[in-house]
């Protein structure tokens, strides 16, 4: 396996790897048709084996504190994407991607990495193994049409919401129970020493 910087020619392989890696996670419906490009500088790496992308990591980093990340008053990097193709999981590819990204982050004088994930025990355990610390949580809520009927949404008469995705920072069980689907969203932070 080789880890190298992402190039534009990698886009289709990057997309395939990400879609397949996310398929059996709480992010199964977060499908991209194009790879994101970032407003700020970034570390974008891919892991290659057998001439295909088997892993990826994208980190957009700050030039000034708290312009991308939320955790500290020093500059950090936001892990927007980290994924390993399901056929190549449990072979330490994610760990190698983190190590390679940390090396670059250290050279850039970043002081921490931040990542957000949803409630998945395996992924939480992996971040903790990589020495990330959970710092904050809130909920991602999905509402289907019957669940939305319970809310008075201020929208024009010609607009009829059918589904809705929302961030919820409260703890009212009634709100949580009204959602058709809900996930605990967690922030993990790793200090770079």
TrEMBL record:
SUPFAM superfamilies: Acyl-CoA N-acyltransferases (Nat) (SSF55729). It comes from the Bacteria. Pfam families: Acetyltransf_1. Residues 1-148 form the N-acetyltransferase domain. The keyword Transferase applies. Keywords: Acyltransferase, Transferase. GO terms for molecular function: acyltransferase activity. InterPro entries: Acyl_CoA_acyltransferase, GNAT_dom, MshD_Acetyltransferase. Its EC number is 2.3.-.-. This is GNAT family N-acetyltransferase. It comes from Kurthia populi.
């Amino acid at each position: 396996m080789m880890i190298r910087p992402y190039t534009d020619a990698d886009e289709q392989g990057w997309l395939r790897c990400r879609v397949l890696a996310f398929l059996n996670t709480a992010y199964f419906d977060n499908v991209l048709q194009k790879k994101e490009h970032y407003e700020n500088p970034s570390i974008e790496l891919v892991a290659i084996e057998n001439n295909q992308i088997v892993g990826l990591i994208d980190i957009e980093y700050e030039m000034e504190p708290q312009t991308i990340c939320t955790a500290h008053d020093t500059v950090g990097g936001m892990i927007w994407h980290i994924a390993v193709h399901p056929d190549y999981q449990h072979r330490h590819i994610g760990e190698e991607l983190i190590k390679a990204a940390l090396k670059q982050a250290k050279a850039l004088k970043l002081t921490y990495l931040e990542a957000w994930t949803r409630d998945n025990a395996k992924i939480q355990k992996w971040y903790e193994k990589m020495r990330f610390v959970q710092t904050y949580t809130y909920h991602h809520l999905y509402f289907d049409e019957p669940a939305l009927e319970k809310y008075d949404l201020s929208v024009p008469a010609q607009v009829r919401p059918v589904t809705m995705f929302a961030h919820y920072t409260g703890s009212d069980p009634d709100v949580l129970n009204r959602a058709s689907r809900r996930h605990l969203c967690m922030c993990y932070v790793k200090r770079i020493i």
